[in-house]
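WARN no homologs supplied; continuing
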Amino acid sequence: MGRFDGRVAVVTGAARGIGFGTAQRFAEEGASVAVIDLDESAAGEAAAKLPLGEGQKAIGIGCDVSDTESVQSAVDRVVDELGGIHILVNNAGVTRDNLLFKMTDEDWDVVMGVHLRGAFLMTRAAQKHFVEQRYGKILNLSSVSALGNRGQANYSAAKMGIQGFTRTLGIELGPYGVNANAIAPGFIATEMTDATARRLKMEPEELRKMNADHNPVRRVGQPEDIAAAAAFLCSDEASYVTGQTLYVDGGAKLG
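OK structure emitted
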């Protein structure tokens, strides 16, 4: 018997990286899963890779999480095709790194649109179902960059905003049986961080080693590390935990 038997989980930005790792963990534990991604073909390919047992389903849906109509259509499709919605993971994200004096209006707006507006729109669409059934789990992805990071004024602001958004959701939705929490990952080995390395004119392995050397546990994180924390926070075992941000960073912020 799986932890999420009979549940439907929606994970945004789930075609790869942390999102896919999380979707995979939910599927392994019995959930039917909707893989949401801007690229519908990539979402479908990711959904097809999920390990499914008897009675489980997985679908891939193309969605621009910063667009109201696109979000509502995606959530409606999840409910129609999978029979409901019980878990929402707001993971979709982008970076547009630059020092403040070089950062453009578009750099700022795109990051805020995906991270903050996207989490808001997806949550607003899902919470209607959560409140009606008096059950729901919301998990938002923040970052250690919320504490400040050179060249990421936009990303840092968005990720700290996620933490305030999460606390407010905990206050507003708690009375309706809905838990809302956040995870703030440290350095996670993904395609996104590999791309960051190349922008810095470094090899991905070099950036990973540098981060591991400055981490108390002497390794970088993997998507599976975030997925494990997500599985707990979205389970009934965490029913007395809400409005919280869990830093999953190998102790990096201790320094």
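The first helix runs from residue 17 to 28.
OK
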